[in-house]
Automatic annotation (TrEMBL):
GO biological process, one term: protein transport
Domain Autophagy-related protein positions: 17-208
Taxonomic classification: Eukaryota, Metazoa, Chordata, Craniata, Vertebrata
InterPro entries from the UniProt entry: ATG16 (IPR045160), Autophagy-rel_prot_16_dom (IPR013923), WD40/YVTN_repeat-like_dom_sf (IPR015943), WD40_PAC1 (IPR020472), WD40_repeat_CS (IPR019775), WD40_repeat_dom_sf (IPR036322), WD40_rpt (IPR001680)
Gene transcribed to yield this protein: ATG16L2
Protein known as: Protein Atg16l2
Keyword Repeat: yes
Length: 621
């Protein structure tokens, strides 16, 4: 009702306004005829009076009599007479007045016609305006109905918005509660992790202490056995060579350190059960033997890095081909991923290939007879894959992701084994070290981290002044390439940078030769550089017409025998340079129609793999 009243009020106002305008027009037009109508009425009255008077004063039919009477009347009414004028005079006057009245009537009739025409025009305009007014009233009614409908829609939407706002507030309250619970769980997880780390540290310390005690006990048993052996005699018929062999066997026995004391006693008694020729020779030989054993034990303790002297575990060396084969043609072309492919890597046995892409998947491929056969897919990455790497044993795969972490998989298992989290930005590179259970990652958060894979924890963080785009690892050296056109060298045993080599252009990738004497870098100045690590300077610079580095993560590699350098260009071509001569050896074109992101050369030297931004992987031979 309130809405209808509000709508009817303005409608009544403009209707009254139109009625007032029409009345004003009627009054204005009526005022034009107010003087004319009375004059016209008076003229009509005079005309009637004159008609009556003329009928009364008409003459007799006899003209003579009329003339006589007229003459006599004229005589009687002379010029000086005071009587009524003659009928002729009156007739003339009446005729004049009649003609004047007719003229006036004609004028009045003409004006009446004009006014009637004007009135008809005004009436047509009035009808037209009334029709327009009716159409406008219908339009107003339609608009009022639409307005009422929209008002109802607005009211319903307001009610729905109010309900959604209430639901949103409830969801926010739930989210706050869940965030609080999550923070509490994270704190508990951190506490548990710290307790676990402390417990592992205590267990490691206890284990190292037990090992140290065991070593000391073994050393003590060896010393006792040596002392017992020193008291025995050696036959003088024994030659010095025989005596030396006995000492050598004793040293070997000591280094073997058997766990059972009975076995040690029997071996020592059997080896040293000989009489000596003199006491001086016996004491000299035994003292020398004890010194050798002690020095060997001390060397073994120095080689270890743990508290108890456990030696550093290293991977076995990867067999490398003597001469790599130059690829000539594409053997197989596949759409490897659902989106851009960023990384490719051969396994140590050269028959397994891994690719990683922006679809957060790692696909493993078997290289069989020059063809790629799908093995299985590794899932669980939290972001786009930027690099992949096999450990030297080929049993594990490490991948860097855009999810601020690196993922560790075991070959043959689809789900991720460990997550190395701790970076605050995209992880651009992740590589295994030559020592077991250790890895290195580089990130855009300007840090390089060393990881203990047994505990999945960071053992060292190196802060750098620029983004890290790639890392490689030697025996004790970590080499990182950065966005500020610098290559930095880090020693795992020294907490600072030991060498910096500037290059032209942002560094996109690094590749270390198998002998760890040469380093290949690719940079955005469209060149590849070979760095001699023995003198730490740039030995060669490779470039070619048409070769352009397609992105900040374009990868270039050495051939396994370090005879060639391989890189992909922005136009899909592969370029191969001879490291010994510095000349462009070959360029391969064909399957790739987009920029090549990464290339890989298998350890046997027989195959090359390349991936691009158009989802393709190409196997070359």
């Amino acid at each position: 009702m309130a809405g209808s009243c509000g709508i009817g009020g303005p409608a009544a106002l403009w209707k009254r306004h139109i009625v007032r305008q029409l009345r004003q027009r009627d009054r204005t037009q009526k005022a034009l005829f107010l003087e004319l109508v009375p004059a016209y009425n008076r003229l009509l009255e005079k005309a009637e009076l004159l008609a009556q008077f003329s009928e009364k004063v008409q003459p007799e039919p006899n003209d003579a009599t009329l003339a006589t009477h007229q003459g006599s009347w004229e005589k009687e009414s002379g010029p000086d007479s005071d009587q009524v004028p003659s009928p002729a005079t009156l007739r003339v006057k009446w005729q004049e007045e009649k003609e004047g009245l007719q003229l006036v009537c004609g004028q009045m009739a003409y004006q009446v016609v004009e006014k009637s025409a004007a009135l008809g025009t005004l009436e047509s305009e009035l009808e037209e305006r009334q029709s327009r007014l009716a159409a406008l009233e219908a339009r107003v009614a339609q608009l009022q109905e639409a307005r009422a409908q929209q008002t109802r829609q607005v009211d319903s939407r307001r009610a729905r918005n109010a309900a959604q706002r209430a639901a949103y507030e409830a969801l926010r309250a739930r989210a706050r509660l869940q965030e609080a619970a999550l923070r509490k769980l994270e704190e508990e997880a951190r506490d548990l992790l710290e307790r676990l780390v402390q417990r592992k540290a205590r267990a490691a310390a206890e284990r190292n202490l037990r090992l140290e005690r065991r070593e000391r006990a073994k050393q003590a048993r060896v010393s006792q056995e040596l002392k017992k052996a020193a008291k025995r005699t050696v036959s003088i018929s024994e030659s010095p060579d025989t005596l030396g062999d006995g000492i050598k066997e004793g040293v070997e026995m000591t280094l073997a350190l058997p766990a059972e004391p009975e076995f040690l006693e029997s071996e020592a008694g059997e080896k040293w059960k000989r009489p000596f020729r003199s006491a001086s020779a016996t004491s000299l030989t035994l003292s020398r033997c004890v010194d050798v054993v002690k020095s060997l034990l001390d060397f073994k303790k120095r080689r270890g890095h743990s508290v108890g002297g456990v030696p550093e575990q290293r991977y076995q060396s990867i067999p490398v081909c003597v001469a790599a084969r130059l690829p000539t043609s594409a053997q197989d072309v596949l759409d490897a991923h659902f989106s851009e492919v960023n990384a490719v890597r051969f396994g140590p046995n050269s028959s397994l290939l891994a690719t990683g892409g922006a679809d957060r998947l790692i696909h493993l491929w078997n290289v069989v007879g020059g063809r790629l056969e799908a093995n299985h897919t590794l899932e669980g990455a939290g972001g786009s894959i930027t690099s992949v790497d096999f450990d030297p044993s080929g049993s594990q795969i490490l991948a860097a992701t855009y999810n601020q972490a690196a993922q560790l998989w075991k070959v043959g298992e689809a789900q991720s084994k460990e997550t190395l989290s701790g970076h605050t930005d995209k992880v651009t590179a992740a590589k295994f070290k030559l020592t077991r259970h250790q890895a290195v990652t580089g990130s855009r958060d300007r840090t390089v981290k060393e990881w203990d894979l047994c505990r999945a924890s960071c053992s060292r963080t190196i802060n750098v002044l620029s983004y890290c785009n790639d890392v490689v690892c030697g025996d004790h050296i970590i080499i990182s390439g950065h966005n500020d056109q610098m290559i930095r060298f880090w020693d795992s045993r020294v907490p600072r940078c030991i060498q910096v080599i500037p290059v032209q252009g942002r560094v996109t990738s690094l590749s270390l030769s198998h002998d760890q004497l040469h380093l290949l870098s690719c940079s955005r100045d469209d060149t590849l550089k070979v760095i001699d690590l023995r003198v730490n300077n740039i030995r060669q610079v490779f470039s070619a017409d048409g070769f352009k580095c397609g992105s900040d993560w374009t990868k270039a590699v050495f051939s396994p025998d370090r005879s060639y350098a391989l890189a992909g260009s922005w136009d899909g071509a592969l370029y191969i340079w001879d490291v010994n001569t510095g000349k462009l050896e070959r360029s391969l074109r064909g399957p790739h129609c987009a920029a090549v992101n990464a290339v890989a050369w298998c350890y046997s030297g027989s195959h090359v793999a390349s991936v691009d931004q158009a989802r393709k992987i190409v196997l070359w031979r």
